[in-house]
Amino acid sequence: MRTYFVIAAILIAGTNGQESFKCPDDFGFYPHHISCDKYWKCDNNVAELKTCGNGLAFDASDNKFLTENCDYLHNVDCGERTQLEPPVGTPHCARLYGIFPDEKKCDVFWNCWNGEASRYQCSPGLAYDREARVCMWADQVPECRNEEVAGGFTCPAAGEVSGASGSFSRHAHPEDCRKYYICLEGIAREYGCPIGTVFKIGDADGSGACEDPEDVPGCEDYYGDLDLNQAALKPRPTTVGGPTRPSPIQE
């Protein structure tokens, strides 16, 4: 845990009860001694108290104190700087900046930037883990019921699937030709076939594989007029990450 006793030692009380700060150098950015979302900007040996956007914290990892960066709270080691500005929220955003889980759907989360919420959804079969802040298998996320993400699909009871290999079986999605479920130890996980293929139920109960749509009755026109070569090359968006824009700072 980092400590800031040197900086705290040169923090003095200003007039009218306001804080003032003696700059250790002519230029630099220094963490506040108790507030994780505040810091001091020194320019020509003049100190100015700055505040990160609500939901962000000052990243004090630069030992040379030359970097001005406010990052998401979960990305910053605040150490003994435990104080924060009171939360300012908007719909889906507990604070103006941050990544927050949806209140009702465990596979949905919101990326909030200045109070504007952008909705993201995990891939089929996954749910948003609030601690790790990544999408994980739904059965590994405590807040999520696997049935919710699996669209209500329930795995057959042990012994009901004659063609299953042990506790492993595959099952077609009831509506989407490309999707299918894998049941493992009674837990359903939703998968999707590669672009250009669909799921074909196997000859044995509980089996199947991804095949050409022309070989799967009822799914021949699944892709319609879609250019499969272009679809396969299209980049997929990143669903979870830190701020990619300049650090918002409140004056």
UniProtKB/TrEMBL annotation:
Residues 1-17 form the signal peptide. The keyword Magnesium does not apply. Gene3D superfamilies: Chitin binding domain. Keywords: Chitin-binding, Disulfide bond, Glycoprotein, Repeat, Signal. Residues 20-80, 90-146, 152-221 form the Chitin-binding type-2 domain. GO terms for cellular component: extracellular region. It holds the Pfam family CBM_14. The keyword Disulfide bond applies. It comes from the Eukaryota. One of its GO terms (molecular function) is chitin binding. PANTHER family: CHITIN BINDING PERITROPHIN-A (PTHR23301), GASP, ISOFORM A (PTHR23301:SF100). This is Chitin-binding type-2 domain-containing protein.
